[in-house]
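Schema walkthrough. Field components (list of strings):
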Amino acid sequence: MLRRATGLLARPILSCRARPFSTDLPAPQTTDSSFVEAWKKVIPNMEPPKTPLSFMQPRPPTPSSIPSKLTVSFVLPYASELSNKEVDMVIIPSTTGQMGVLPGHVSTIAELKPGLLSVHEGNEVTKYFVSSGFAFIHANSFADIIAVEAVPLDQIDASLVQKGLAEFTQKLSSASTDLEKAEAQIGVDVHSALNAALTG
Amino acid sequence: MASNAAVPFWRAAGMTYITYSNICANLVRNCLKEPYKTEALTREKVHFAVSKWVDSKPQKSSMIRIFLDLGFLRCAIRSDTEEE
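Field assembly_structure (string):
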């Protein structure tokens, strides 16, 4: 099985080209010009109907020089916290550690762990505690951060966090099955991250 | 061949990412201060209706159920009486 692997590997590399990133492709046309002309010939008084594509705002392609601001969209399932907001930097709590994203950051997809997300704009910093989610950073300095739950720090109750931490640490030591251990570990992780966010 | 990526502990225990993410979100919601906590708990509820189908027809009128996902301690609260 392994002897044929080298032969199998060589051919696909020659035949497939890497697909371009979505930010490197030219922006699609928002209106179909031939349809619009045909419409105007038949019904000159009415506006042609708008298609879904015309409502979408295409994102700019990757510029040749690094832009000065990062455009961030931070969305939750029930609300849009930030929508295409131009900021200087965001620090996201990725599983590989706190990651600072500046304009011109390389394209990245980062999985987030429970932790602090801070948005830096001029002199002001807005902090949110994020439960988990993903961050997509595109080459054109657009960042999309999606999370299930994100709360500003002043909405967190410190006493509940301490209670939760104690409860889950106790559950972790008394857990028997793999699943219980995993749940208790998640509880400990989330509560210690909450604690660190409140005190740090 | 053995898996070469280090799997996160929750996946090793048989949990999917969605379950993990929902547990984290629930834990965060339970640590909120009072007015925010009650709004958050309404977000946690999932309304779903279940009906059995036989011969391409639903067997009984679907019952609305409310599902509170507290990690693996799932409590389904039925909002109207059942005829099972």
